[in-house]
Structures are given as structure tokens and as C-alpha cells.
């Protein structure tokens, strides 16, 4: 299969640089949560307020702990590596620790880092490189079943929801694969396609390659990207939706997200039923029986009581399972999904 | 402005290779129609049924006629150059004739052709190269007015309609720019952005760059790409729609196109009012007063009487100007557009 494969040697040191907030640390947070067994520690600049709860390490600590790879856990604005990070990353590479990142700026394009890695015999791995020779999408229906996470916006829990649903299906003994579409998902799963780094003409073709023909009772649980509502990334989201041809979608949302992130409130998030209806309208152009299996909402900002009320009201309103993937888990969505497919 | 600029030396020889039909010859046909003064002849393989009506030339004819550039006039699916074309293209390059193409396969990636061009001191120009360092889209509303061609499918006359509408606006003394989004449009206009060759994360950002802030009474007439209904290219189309933030759209269609090209009838084209409503629903997420200014339909397969009946029935049904851009022209759409904007 023509997917991007990465095999990062554990244990990892998660590098946060001067990451200003949790949003931008989602790569580090995702790896720490889903692959805790591989994470030995974290390294930050003194100004960084984000704490993944891992042991703080110096370069010497990392060497002593046998760290094999430092993983850049931040997605800075513009996808470029700030100059302030270079001394620490170079020192690690010179000490023989491999460096991995999934930014638009390639590690191999940084001569100082390349030199440091050569000196320390460290390997530099750029994760956000799509496979070569992707085909144009065809629209051909494939065997097997697919469920795609869609979002009201970026960074609302699509990856988390997909991984949690995949784990829930596996727990029940149902054949399932997590299909990563972004750099963090690829580092967690070891393979996938960074769909936002693909040339535009090949978005749906890449999505078709990512979830190929499979057993009739096999589920591909596909990580979403962006949002159909996001003025920056909607093209990626529609190409992924059409290429995935999902049997079902899950809408992911963050209860605090009132408008599209970074647009000064210019693009308010519509009511969730409207978001679902619009997405299904798009999805059904390619597979006319696509349905919504539930809504997965980050409610970490709410009290327990408020969360319970919010989810129960939303569930009543939408007539669909509404969960917080961390607090209540994905079981109700898995139930709904399996009950509505044969 | 960060757009792709090309300056191809005329006169041109239009190369058709073994192009199977008019659909795939749209680059050659577009240049022959819109820039007839620059076209000296055509060259084809014996199996090619498409005839642009230009003088047939051998390599020696082209040299004798002072041809400066051979332009690949075919867009094969997936954008790769078939091996059968190479002998003729190499012979032309060796004879000192520059080669230009707008395919995904870069001329510079073909060692045999590069060697031939070096021998003949010919220049190879790849038109489908997006500008470097494109920004991510922001969704910020820009000054000036914009109208975008959308299609029921690929190759239904979006470029032709945009160029004809631009010419009609200029004829009336209205400030207007044609904004090319594909290789043919770029070769005709001399600049633009090949939006389908941009990295997926930057589609709407590229569209924002292509039609920057302008005078309040200036129209950008933006060539569309693909179709929201096309399983291969819908992501490109939505990113372009959202990044363009058009005041108005024109739906382009071919009366013979009953289902999406190349999908064996699996994806029938819906009724045109449904296509318009869906597109406006998407467009209004970014600009809530976007409207449809008319429908531009290729009716070349109909008799004069059938065309008249078809367009008049459709116009009655949709309540919008319905034209054939070649036969009846874009005047009714320009009238509707200008009457509905202030």
C-alpha cells in the first residue's frame, strides 16, 4: 500500500520548545496520551507553559535514560521551526538522538541540524511527506466499511475520537483499522497519509488509497482533517470526505468553540444539526446511504453536572448519541454504528 | 503578487500526441481559440482524431515556419506524459524549438527531453508550478468584486465562460481581470495560479492571493476548477470557492453531460437548480450574499431549434439567464450580474 510509513525508535523525548498553549501542542499531547509506553520525558524552553506531565529532561538526562528519538510535539503557526529551538535540537542530534517532526518545514532543509545529525550519527525523520505517485480519485465504491470523523473546526478532537472508537471496536472483537491522515496520527499509528500535504488534485485519490478494499465486516476508522466550515482547510476536508466514501460519519466538536479558530468570530459555528445535514449532503453525493453515528464533544471546560445536562439535551435534540470521548467514552456511538449497519 | 507568470515565445505549434477526444484537448483548443494570432500549426500522432483546424506540421515545417514554442495541448488524466510522445517532442527540442506544458509530470523530470533541449538550446517551461511560500487562507473579506465559474463537472466550459464574460465586461468599459486557475488559462493570460497543483493545505490561501484587494468597482472573473460533484477534484473546487469568496457564481454545464465524466454513470449530474443551491450553500458560509448570475451551457450538440427551446425552458425553470457562451454569448449574464450588484 502506497502510504507513508514511519518507524521511530523508542523511547521518545517530546520536544515542546516555546509552545504557547495546548492547541499548538496537540502532537506532543497525542503521542503522550496514546503511546505513553514510548515516552520517556519532555523538554521545553523556560517560557513554555504547556506541561505534558512527563519527566523534564536535559540533553544529558535524555542520553542517560537511553532516549532514542526526540519528537517535535508542537505545530507552530506557519509550520516553520523557530530559531530558538535549534540549539537544543542540534545538541540532541549531536548526542546521537534521532529527530522526528511533522511540520511543513522539513528537518532535512535545515543545514545546521543536518550537520549536527551527521556528527552524532542521528537520523532525521520528516513525517509529513506524502507517498509519491498518488493516483487521482476514481469514486469507485470499495468493499469493507468506513467511518470518518468530521469536525466543526480544526483541533476539536477528531484524532482522539477516531482512536477511541477504533479501540472500542477492537475491544468488542470487531475488525478495525485506524487510518491516520495527519502527522500526529501517523506517528501514533506508524503509518498513514498526511492528507493536507498532498497536491490538491490528489486529495481524494490519497483518501481512496488510505482505506483500500477490505473484508465486508472490517471497519476503517478514518481520522478527519480540518472542517468543511473552515475557510483555510475546507478543500482538504471535502476531498477526504469524498475519497473516504464513508458509510458513516461522527461529528466532532468542542463546546467552547463558538466560531472558527483564528477568524475573530467572523465565521460562527452553525447549529450542530445544520453541520451534520450539510456534511451528509456532501457525503451522499458519493455514497447515498451515509449516516451520522453520533457526536463526540470535548466538554472539558464544563463541570460534571453541566456536561451531563449539555450532552443529554443535545442528544434529545439531535436524536443521536452525544458523548465526551474522554469522560463518557465512545461506547454509545459504537452501539449506534453497529446497530445501523449490517 | 505571488502568482505564476509565463511568457512563451510565439509562434506556437500545438502538440496533440494521441489525444483521443476534444475533452482532453482542451488546452490546445483553448489556446487556438483565444490566442489564434500566436498559433502557427498543430502536430499529432497518426492515431489522433482531434483536429484544431491549424496547418499540420512536421518538425521541418515548424522550423521553416519559425515556430518558437511547441505547447503540449493535451491534458491526459493524471497529468502524465505518455512515452509515445517523446520522440516528436525530443526532435522538436533538438531542432531548437522550446517546449511548454502544464502537466503534473514536469518536463524537467524527463532526462531524455532535458538532454534533447540542451542539444538544441531549447527552453523547457513547466506551467503547472504554483508559486512558492503560499499562505494558508484566512477568510478575510477583500475589497473589489468577484465572480467565479463553477461546473457540473470538469471540461464543461468554465474557462471559456470566464474569458467571454471578462471580454464582455471590458467591452462595456467595466474594470475586470480574468484570473486563471489552470494551465490553459495561465498560458492564455500569461499569469495565474495552477490551483490543482498547490499543496492541499494552501488551496484557499492560493485563491485569496489570486484575487487580492481591488477597487470597489473592479471585477475579478475567476476561472473555476473541477466540480463540487466530481469525486476526483471536489476538494480543489471547494477550496477555490471558499478562498475566492465570490459575490456571484455562474454555473457552467454541457447539455450532453448526464453523469460525471469517467465514472461509468455512477455519479449522475443532479438537476441544475439543485447544483446551484448546493454551491450557494457552500459559498454563503464565507460570503452570505453570494448569488448565481446565470447558467452557461455548451449546447453544441443541439440543433438551433433544440438549443433555443432548451435554453428558454431552462431559463423559465431557473429564473436565471441561461446562455450558450459560444452561440448566444454572455451578455444576458453580464446584464443580470450588473443589475444585481451595486
Q: Can you walk me through this structure?
A:
The structure is a homodimer of 342-residue chains. Chain A is α/β, with parallel strands linked by helices and 342 residues long. The first copy, chain A, folds into 2 domains: 4-126, 3-Layer(aba) Sandwich (Rossmann fold), CATH 3.40.50.720; 145-339, P-loop containing nucleotide triphosphate hydrolases (Rossmann fold), CATH 3.40.50.300. Chain A has helices spanning 26-34, 59-64, 86-94, 111-120, 158-171, 183-189, 203-210, 234-244, 272-283, 304-318, 331-339; strands spanning 4-5, 12-17, 39-44, 69-72, 98-101, 124-126, 145-151, 176-179, 191-192, 219-222, 248-254, 291-298, 322-323. In chain A, strands 8-10-7-11-12-13 form a 6-stranded parallel β-sheet, sandwiched between helices. In chain A, strands 3-2-4-5-6 form a 5-stranded parallel β-sheet, with helices on both faces. The longest helix of chain A is centred in the C-terminal third of the chain and has 15 residues, at 304-318. Chain A is globular, with a radius of gyration of 20 Å. The mean pLDDT of chain A is 95. The interface between A and B is large, with 43 and 43 residues.
Beta fraction of chain A: 15-25%
Distance between termini of chain A?
27 Å
Instruction: Give me the strand/helix succession of chain A.
Output: EEHEHEHEHEEHEHEHEHEHEHEH
CATH topology of the largest domain in chain A: Rossmann fold
CATH superfamily of the largest domain in chain A: P-loop containing nucleotide triphosphate hydrolases
Could you tell me the mean pLDDT of chain A? 95
The amount of helix of chain A comes to 25-40%
Give the CA-based shape of chain A.
globular
Q: What structural class do the secondary elements of chain A suggest?
A: alpha/beta
How many distinct folded domains of chain A?
Answer: 2
CATH architectural designation of the largest domain in chain A: 3-Layer(aba) Sandwich
Main interface: chain pair and counts: A-B, 43 and 43 residues
**Strands of the biggest beta sheet of chain A: in what spatial order?**
8-10-7-11-12-13
> Radius of gyration of chain A, Cα only, in angstroms?
20 Å
Amino acid at each position: 500500500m502506497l502510504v507513508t510509513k514511519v518507524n521511530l525508535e523508542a523511547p521518545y523525548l517530546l520536544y515542546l520548545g516555546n509552545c504557547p498553549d495546548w492547541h499548538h501542542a496537540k502532537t506532543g499531547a497525542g503521542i503522550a496520551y496514546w503511546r505513553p509506553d514510548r515516552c520517556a520525558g519532555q523538554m521545553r524552553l523556560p517560557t513554555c507553559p504547556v506541561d505534558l506531565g512527563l519527566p523534564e529532561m536535559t540533553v544529558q538526562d535524555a542520553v542517560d535514560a537511553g532516549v532514542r528519538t526526540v519528537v517535535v510535539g508542537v505545530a507552530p503557526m506557519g509550520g516553520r521551526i523557530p530559531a530558538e529551538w535549534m540549539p537544543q535540537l542540534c545538541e540532541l542530534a549531536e548526542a546521537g538522538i534521532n529527530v522526528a517532526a511533522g511540520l511543513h518545514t522539513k528537518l532535512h532543509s535545515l543545514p545546521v541540524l543536518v550537520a549536527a545529525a551527521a556528527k552524532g550519527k542521528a537520523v532525521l525523520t520528516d513525517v509529513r511527506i506524502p507517498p509519491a505517485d498518488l493516483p487521482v480519485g476514481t469514486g469507485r465504491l470499495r468493499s469493507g466499511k468506513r467511518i470518518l470523523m468530521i469536525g466543526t473546526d480544526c483541533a476539536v478532537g477528531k484524532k482522539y475520537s477516531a482512536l477511541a472508537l477504533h479501540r472500542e471496536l477492537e475491544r468488542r472483537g470487531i475488525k478495525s483499522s485506524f487510518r491516520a491522515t495527519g502527522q500526529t496520527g501517523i506517528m501514533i499509528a506508524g503509518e498513514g497519509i498526511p492528507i493536507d500535504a498532498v497536491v490538491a488534485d490528489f486529495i481524494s485519490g490519497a483518501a481512496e488509497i488510505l482505506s483500500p478494499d477490505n473484508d465486508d465486516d472490517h471497519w476503517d476508522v478514518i481520522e478527519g482533517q480540518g472542517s468543511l466550515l473552515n475557510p483555510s482547510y475546507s478543500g482538504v476536508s471535502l476531498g477526504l470526505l469524498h475519497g473516504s466514501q464513508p458509510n458513516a460519519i461522527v461529528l466532532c466538536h468542542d463546546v467552547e468553540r463558538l466560531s472558527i479558530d483564528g477568524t475573530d468570530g467572523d465565521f460562527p459555528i452553525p447549529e450542530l444539526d445544520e453541520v451534520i445535514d450539510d456534511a451528509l449532503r456532501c457525503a451522499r453525493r458519493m455514497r447515498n446511504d451515509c449516516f451520522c453515528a453520533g457526536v463526540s464533544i470535548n466538554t472539558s471546560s464544563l463541570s460534571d453536572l453541566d456536561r451531563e445536562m449539555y450532552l443529554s439535551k443535545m442528544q434529545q435534540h439531535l436524536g443521536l448519541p452525544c458523548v465526551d470521548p474522554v469522560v463518557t467514552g465512545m461506547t454509545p456511538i459504537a452501539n449506534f454504528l453497529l446497530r445501523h449497519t449490517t
